[in-house]
Amino acid sequence: MHSLPVFLRLTGRPVILTGAGEAADAKRRLLERAGAQIVGEEDSAARIAIVSDGDAATAERLRARGVLVNATDNPDLCDFTLPAIVDRDPVLIAIGTGGASAGLAKALRQRLEAMLPARLGKLADGLLAARGAIKARWADAGARRRGIDAGLAPGGMIDPLRADAADALGAWLAAEGQAVAARLVSIRLSSDDPDELTLRAARLLGEADRIYHPPSVPALILDRARADAARIVADGPPAEPGEGLSLWVTLD
Question: pTM score, two decimals?
């Protein structure tokens, strides 16, 4: 990754904004939505700055003070970039291109806006409110994660792309037969390029509890798996893979 995606809590914190015009106005509205206290360059307490006109001299002065800078249309002077945002509060989706193309980020945002239900945030709020009930339903952490994954999967009772998913939370928690059986699935890769993964392989990598693989499978492929999925180097598929979904991944 060229950058580490993070979400900053800016409520009440000073953020420097310089420049004028439409670009500055747009950045001001964004910062105000995030609850930031907008200040000028002279504010010594601020540690984040947006140089809306991309002025190199201003950006360099601020960076020399240890301030993290975003300089509009000047990616070489940016310590961070501002993504296109899909807002379904509290769900936020940020789309960045590393400053390569704001137009591309915008196009992707518009596609996602059309796909995601307006009440997606209500589903997130409902899941938070139901946290205690979810823990009671699945006391084991692994079983709990698998149960949640099954509910949120395409076609699941609380599939986040369903407009009525938030309304189905109660029925999902009460439903029987949601346990996910232990299974081992083999994936044979034809390329070491993660961009050439099939949709099936990418989906399974994102769902797997553990991934068994020979040393020849590159890290770039394994990086497409869940961050908390176990990676296990092996000479062959396991006789007893363990609970949930396990993968045996090989590269031709």
Answer: 0.71
